[in-house]
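Table 4 source record.
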Amino acid sequence: MDRIEIIKQALSDREYGALLITSPPNRLFATGFPSSAGVLLVTKGDAWLYTDTRYIEAAKDAVRNAHVLLATNEDTYAAQVKAVLDENGITSVGFEDKSVTYSGYLEWSEKLEVELTPAQDLIIGLRMVKTNDDLENMKKAQRIAEKSFEEILQLIDKDITEKQLAAELVHHFMRNGADDKSFDPIVVSGTRSSMPHGVPGNDKIGPGFLTIDFGVRLGAWCSDTTRTLCIGNPDDEMVRVYDTVLSAQQAGIKRARAGLPGSDVDAAARAVIEDAGYGEYFGHGFGHGLGIEVHEAPTASKSSEDILPKGAVISAEPGIYLPGRFGVRIEDVIYITEKGSENITNLPTRLIVL
């Protein structure tokens, strides 16, 4: 069953008669067609995708589960959506309350002359659960990213900068078949490895930890992986911190299964880091959902209220960051099952010393 049919079924027990989808990720999820401009309207019985001249030809070729129509300055998105709503007697429409700005909400309310009801949770719930085909496509994305990472290891030396290494990684992504990067790679070395989301700089890679956080986009799907390497031999504390992070990751992965709160998974990993005396240096959560976006629901963090459903894909990425000294993060991606999880990352987690 295609996703628009699934959305129609989900609408069957909702008070609103249609769902208005304006965000690119959710349009991509529903139709399989990527575009920066467009509006998707789904009722309990039909669907319409409106887009502009840049995408209309490609959309008509690619989209089979919705009527594809051209929006123009004269025949606008709002005018065409309103015509469908009026024709079907629909007076209440669900909208993406977590994506639409307040000004956008006011504009749609005025032009459509209907009640707009918060409905993004419907799409969020559907996107959490990946099909077998989705999972296989995510694995393909992982393999491309992993191959590219292994290829750039030989390029790491004292004459390459963080920024140059990040550029080489993206170059290898594309050579190996990725459609794009899923986010700008994080490449930080030495004392800068203590910054979880540090931006690659012009400094040459020197002794100490080197953290590389990377991912590709293949079709609709994202990958996400982090490995921390060491340039030169690590000292005793560096080894202790690395081993603690790895043990924490393994504890969280072992705890993960469908039906558990994401906070329980985080707690299992966090306890390992706290017991080692580094609790204050683990500031982010254990993991986040991954799919059409590199960060999506569900989350596995200290404050998360999400229940992990069967079929969710989440990252497993605890870390310890000692300001001004060094940091370590190890990130795999796991698929949540009723009995536990499947790790879809193939790279080894042992510390690589170059």
